[in-house]
Design brief:
The chain is mostly helical. About 65% of the residues lie in helices and about 5% in strands.
Length: about 550
């Protein structure tokens, strides 16, 4: 064990404690459940994961999603904890199932713009809900707009001592962010406890955390019927998708900075084991949050041992310092949450999308979904937007007409390259997306229309370089396209047809079309020239 890992682990443990207590408050569960989750998550990931920087513990988004999920089935204290245990256990099993069938690519279904928009929306929601804690005001509202209005109306009732406590803590936290190696959250936590003890803040009306139960008990599972399990599954699957997308983004980003190699399927399994372990200690869902991982990196971690040390450090704090944590002012915890989420309010990533003119409305839609519809429905909207953007990209028909660059063997889009020239009497078309059931007929229909609209065209070459494979609908559309063009008197040739596509064409009994398939556009042009020359020479 290197000294760097020891220092990094202890620094991270100091960060995890206040965040765990705060995230438990977001989830509506006692603090020990987030602390147990952090210990179990870090320990298991240090054994099963690959990233030397990732800290697998409760995150703000997973806590908010869990709270919204539990709100669907309102239950009293013990039953609520048992229900949360079931959700976390189901999430862990889904992670393991996805790893077993190698679904690491699932992270790609949550696009980065959608994830950024979701993170922005959830950060705004969580931060706004910390203000009643910081101000000592009691606010109940059914929507975020009503909540904001009630917050403004409550200003005369704000508790001065609570506002001062939370405000000072927030200023200190933001100031200490300039020194990544300094455990600012832990120092502010210690200062808050000291102020609470010395100034007797509780008797001055400032809320405190109160006694924290440190005894670890075996989980109890409620009796659930199929309807309950089905309802939980509806929200657990999106929770897993969001949690993995967030975690993989952190793990991959930190790995790329240092040239480390990580595998998405392996990380799925590691996160699954971490969440199963968290369920066994009745903890919250766990994932690799960016703030904790970045803190571990900045503190000089060199191996996964820092994660194990963080777990040990948090366990020691749990056993020895909980009587002091009971004195922690709640406004200080609210300040810790706000400081941890400030980075998510940075508009730079979305402004960059605006400059690129790509996906900016998708990101804003994901953020608006969370703000207007709430965390759960907003999460579903975010995933739906990702899938909609994917389908739109592949289903929107666009074909490019190709021409040769000079005397080279390169064929490029003539609309983008003025010096590209199409062979005489031959039109070369390339679908710009893989052919599949949603776009094949429309894309090939554009080729048919283009060929019929130009009387100088005698032959058509279809370049299939984007289509590694075809589904049955796309195959049928391709066969129908060939027959239609042949019936209209055009010579048809396929170019850049992959072996899987050619095997499928042959298996469908279209041996003639298979023989009219080439591996390059240049070869296809040569075959078309030979066919047209032969036709001209025939009497």
């Amino acid at each position: 064990m290197r000294s760097n890992d020891l220092v990094a682990g202890l620094c991270v443990a100091g960060l995890m404690l206040p965040e765990a207590v705060a995230y438990a408050g977001i989830a509506g569960l006692p603090p020990q459940h987030a602390i147990f989750a952090g210990i179990a998550g870090c320990l298991v990931y240090s054994l099963a994961g690959r990233s030397r920087f990732a800290i697998v513990s409760p995150t703000s988004s997973s806590a908010a999603i869990l709270a919204a999920t539990l709100a669907v089935v309102p239950l009293p204290g013990a039953a609520r904890i048992a229900f949360a245990t079931v959700v976390v256990g189901m999430a862990g099993l889904l992670f393991l199932l996805a790893a077993a069938v190698r679904l690491g690519g699932l992270t790609g279904f949550i696009s980065r713009p959608v994830l950024r928009g979701f993170a922005l929306g959830i950060a705004l929601t969580i931060i706004l809900h910390q203000f009643p804690v910081m101000t000592g005001a009691s606010i109940q509202a059914s929507s975020l707009a009503a909540f904001c209005l009630a917050l403004i109306r409550s200003i005369p009732a704000w508790h001065p001592a609570s506002v001062a406590t939370g405000g000072i803590a927030l200023v200190l936290l933001l100031a200490l962010r300039r020194y990544p190696a300094v455990p600012g959250a832990f120092l502010v936590l210690v200062g808050g406890i000291a102020a609470s003890y010395c100034l007797d803040l509780h008797n001055h009306g400032v809320g405190i955390v109160g006694a924290v139960e440190t005894a670890l008990t075996l989980p109890t599972f409620p009796r659930l019927d199929w309807n309950d399990i089905s309802r939980l599954g509806q929200f657990t699957v999106p929770l897993v998708l969001i949690l993995f997308a967030e975690s993989w983004g952190t793990i991959r980003t930190l790995a790329l900075r240092h040239g480390d190699v990580v595998d998405a399927d392996h990380e799925l399994a590691a996160l699954g084991l971490a969440n199963v372990a968290s369920a066994l200690v009745q903890g919250l869902p766990v994932g690799a949050g960016f703030s904790a991982g970045s803190a571990n990196e900045a503190a000089g971690a060199t191996s996964r041992m820092s994660s194990a040390i963080a777990a040990a450090g948090l366990a020691i704090i749990l056993l020895m310092a909980m009587p002091f944590v009971a004195l922690l002012p709640e406004p200080v915890l609210a300040a810790v949450v706000i400081a941890a989420l400030v980075h998510a309010l940075d508009p730079t990533p979305i402004l960059r999308l605006w400059r690129l003119d790509r996906d900016q409305f998708v990101a804003l839609g994901a953020a608006a979904g969370v703000l207007v519809l709430g965390v759960l429905d907003g999460m579903l909207v975010a995933i739906a937007l990702s899938l909609a953007a994917l389908v739109r990209r592949f289903a929107t028909p666009r074909v490019a007409r190709l021409g040769r660059l000079g005397h080279s063997h390169d064929y490029v889009d003539v609309a983008r390259h003025a010096d590209a020239v199409a062979p005489p009497h031959v039109a070369i078309w390339r679908p710009t997306a893989p052919l599949f059931f949603a776009n094949a007929e429309r894309m090939l229909g554009l080729v048919v229309s283009g060929a019929r609209g130009d009387p100088a065209i005698h032959a058509v070459i279809l370049s299939l370089e984007e289509s590694y494979d075809l589904d049955s609908t796309a195959l049928d559309a391709l066969i129908e396209f060939d027959r239609t063009m042949t019936r209209d008197g055009f010579c048809v040739q396929l170019a850049r047809a992959h072996d899987r596509v050619r095997d499928l064409i042959a298996a469908a009994g279209e041996t003639d079309l298979d023989q009219r398939s080439a591996y390059s556009v240049d070869d296809a042009v040569a075959q078309i020239d030979a066919t047209l020359s032969q036709g001209r020479n025939e009497p």
